[in-house]
């Protein structure tokens, strides 16, 4: 079986294949996007939108990719002439979806390490409009980088050097300014990257006129990306896909159906980013906070409030939870009845998003282990769920019952039974599980000496933990009835088992 190349497009060698093949004319489009990073998230989300817009005649531009090293996928991109297969699989509105697309948005891939001069030469292209990145959260940090190096060490350093080259190539004309959209998963990513680049320009003593151009004519947009794009699928899945499409592809990219790229911008940004018209998943609005809030509270928050319950119940993955009568009911009810009403966004959009999240949780093609979601469980609980709890209590003057059940399961999950070389483990059905949490030692100590057969001891433990503002940033015990409800559930779980309590408390 041959590997994917442009010959498949030219010779139409895929009769009967389910794959969507791009027209050859799309390979001749000019480069309009500079992309820092070759990872699957960029291939599965922004590059998906660029490709879709090109096929609809809306954007008419391709992507030149900058890779930080010489190793890995850069050579594969060259061998496959920038083409890769995007397999979209999942659940949408309750129905299973499977789609295969040959993405032709990428024109070429350059190595920053060995082809930095070619990267800087891209700055002379007047059609280049947009810069995107996903260099991980660590990538957006201020260092003592020298922007004159070939290449600079950090991503902000490389970006500054490129923008300086752009400024010089067009003598600071207003039209040469660019739109920069970082896709790193940090709040206000555009604002933070802008601050770092400006500070770095000062550190490198770059001309005041350049800094003025950077400040006035280059736009840094905050953005939010949301799509599950796992790493390369296992061998069996890959082989099954290759048999289906009729060729092999070392850059095979698999994603869920749901997609969101929320970009903060005005009408001028919309005009420049014409690709947004191709798909409802691209949102350009002056304030993207509501999209961030609903993702944090509904998707991430529901994961967090459910994970301990599902794991101690005896399940291993999110998919297994959604296939269990009681856990699926718990997840649906806690999200729709207790989280949605407490999220400060438009309720209709929150409920629509909640339905989409449930479809995502049911996706049979993505295996999401529960134990991996428990990483830094306490910090996630604080960041994703505490404000939801406070909002609900303020709005309704009562305890969110299912939320309290999930919180009780979290406390039980954090009950370590063993410490060895600073590593802590709990126990489920006689078998150990890891507690990978910066507060594992805190809970190990807090649980010491607690008589789990005495309700008064459990109540004392819960009151102590919920009142600790160093954990939650607020006193959760001050929420009338919350500590007592959590104590009741926790005591019941210790006496009767998690499964029995869940099945008794989660109603049809």
Shape estimate: globular
Residues in helix, %: 40-55%
Largest β-sheet summary? 6 strands, parallel
Rg is 25 Å
Proportion of strand residues: 5-15%
Mean pLDDT: 94
Query: Which residues form runs of ≥5 with pLDDT under 50?
Result: none
Give a concise summary.
The protein has 508 residues and is an alpha/beta fold. The chain has helices spanning 7-10, 40-44, 46-55, 73-79, 116-121, 155-169, 189-203, 208-217, 235-245, 267-272, 289-313, 318-323, 325-339, 347-361, 370-373, 377-396, 401-413, 440-447, 455-466, 469-472, 482-496, 498-505, and strands at residues 31-36, 62-67, 84-92, 95-103, 106-111, 130-133, 179-182, 219-220, 223-226, 253-255, 260-264, 282-285, 418-420, 423-428, 431-435. Helix content is 46%, strand content 15%.
Q: Could you list some keywords that capture this structure?
A:
single chain; 2 domains; Rossmann fold; 22 helices; 508 residues; globular; 3-stranded mixed sheet; N-(1-d-carboxylethyl)-l-norvaline Dehydrogenase, domain 2; alpha/beta
